[in-house]
Amino acid sequence: MKARITVTLKPSVLDPQGKAIEGALHALEVPGIKGVRQGKVFDIDMDDMAPDAATSALKAAAEKLLANLIVETYRIELV
Amino acid sequence: MKAAIITFPGSNREGDVFRALADVTGHKPVHVWHADYELPPGTDLVVLPGGFAYGDYLRCGAIAGRAHIMQAVKAHAARGGLVLGICNGFQILVESGLLPGVLMRNANLRFVCKMQHLRVERADTPFTRAYKQNQVIKVCIAHGEGNYIADAETIARLEGEGLVAFRYCDGAGKVGGAANPNGSLHDIAGIYSADRKVLGLMPHPENLIDPLVGGIDGRGLFTSLMAA
Predict the structure, then answer these.
(1) Short-list B92, B88, B80, B99, CA closest to B228
(2) What is the separation, in whole angstroms, between the first and last Cα of chain B?
(3) How many CB atoms lie within 10 A of CB A73?
(4) Which domains does chain A have, with CATH numbers?
(5) Tens digit of each residue's pLDDT (9 = 90 or more) over A27-79
(6) Which of A28, B51, B58, B127 gives 20 to 30 Å between its CA and that of A18?
(7) Rg (CA), chain A
(8) Of B63, B102, B151, the CB nearest to A68
(9) Smallest CA–CA separation between A79 and chain B, in Å?
(10) Complex confidence, ipTM
């Protein structure tokens, strides 16, 4: 089975990279851009298991390594 | 004073730290590979050197902070052993949980590599006793992710318990404004653990030990450790 974990900075944390990208998009005159926050996506291939067990394993992956919970949050999707 | 320097894949200042320790203390440190499980018996000081451990993959220090040897480093710290993390070593210390907070991308998004003044906040720790309190020293910095951030409660605790080790300042010791090279909260350049036995700092005192290369203001840190 496959899963995706998306890690993003907490809304309260300044994201200078996102700001720089936002500025570049404005410079390219892409219409309608109000704000950009940069994050990371992890596409994970894992053994088949019950959704609860998979979510629990992915939560462990996110909290032990993939996200730094001081400044980041994460979202798990089973796909 | 027996020192062990941990080398991770991508560390690149382990030789500089070796030279600084050997030159100042007269004792040659031991190199320890990151995949080892144990520190040499009788280790007094563990050094996590600068560099780009694991290529800074995921986040700076994230993977190194979870390497096998870090369990031994945590046990060493729990016994009251000294731990010094410089630059990437500081990032590894916060990622491993040995120090609080996080080092974010520099506020101006630039890698900064330059000489920098620091104010020594206290001179009664194993790392700073050869300095004077509020002494201004000139060392170098070289980092892209040195912007120290922590929640308000943690910052209040660091300040309240006197756990800020060094602050960025100008040549006169004035903090703030342009003297802060990376946006760090409270101009923090380095912090201690609660027992002041673990020190993490972004600047590189190990590179300022020889007048040939621009100054010797970094020697005090290693002189201090000699008595440890």
Answers:
(1) B80
(2) 6
(3) 15
(4) 2-78 (3.30.1280.10)
(5) 999 999 999 999 999 999 999 999 999 999 999 999 999 999 999 999 999 98
(6) B51
(7) 16
(8) B102
(9) 23
(10) 0.85
